[in-house]
Design goal:
Layout lengths: L1 H35 L12 E4 L4 E3 L7 E7 L4 H17 L4 E7 L6 H10 L5 E4 L4 H5 L7 E5 L5 E6 L7 H11 L1
Parallel strand pairs: 3-4, 4-5
Antiparallel strand pairs: 1-2, 1-5, 3-6, 6-7
Length: about 180
């Protein structure tokens, strides 16, 4: 019996050290997540890249100098389908002013063909990217689709919306006009 207590007693410090290490790692993870937090207007846009339908990587940093509307969506998302024609019309109206829409599909798996068919069906001429691992949703802390972020020419987040942008939304159009001018 005495041997059993000795073995248990010897393992206790190791167990305590192990629990301490787990606690320290957990606290570090929480701090890192808290410091990232959700995106905020006035903060630099988060570095992000995904591939276009030709398989080429496109990064937000590559678009510096342009006003960028970053829109996360999916082919199965009804509100996304409803806002896409409006986004296309906004793109056509402002494209000559250095305005770019980057629509990022969050469709998982091998959905590139579905994404291409969606873009064709809705006659989308702005940049379409595909992020099947949904890294953008985690980075921008998107819980539902669509989600849209307006980024100025210097790469600063100027407006954001979780949910669809209604046609002729005065808040969106005001923010867009401010950033374009």
């Amino acid at each position: 019996m005495g041997g059993g207590r000795t073995a248990a007693g010897a393992g206790a410090p190791r167990l305590i050290r192990g629990l301490g290490l787990i606690l320290a790692l957990a606290m570090t993870g929480c701090v890192a997540a808290e410091s990232a937090g959700p995106p905020r207007v006035g903060d630099p846009a988060r570095d992000y890249a995904a591939t276009n339908l030709a398989g080429e990587e496109v990064a937000l940093a590559d678009l510096r100098g342009q006003v960028v509307l970053l829109n996360f969506w999916a082919t199965w998302c009804t509100p996304c389908r409803m806002e896409t024609p409006y986004l296309q019309s906004v793109f056509e109206e402002y494209a000559e002013d250095g305005f770019e829409i980057v629509g990022v599909s969050m469709d998982t798996g091998d959905a590139a063909d579905d994404v291409a068919m969606f873009a064709e069906e809705y006659a989308v001429t702005y940049t379409i990217l595909h992020d099947p691992e949904m890294r953008g949703m985690e980075l921008y802390q998107v819980l539902g689709l669509p989600a849209t972020f307006l980024i100025d020419r210097e790469g600063v987040l100027r407006w954001m919306r979780y949910g669809p942008i209604p046609e002729d939304d005065p808040e969106f159009l005001s923010a867009l006009d401010d950033v374009i001018s």
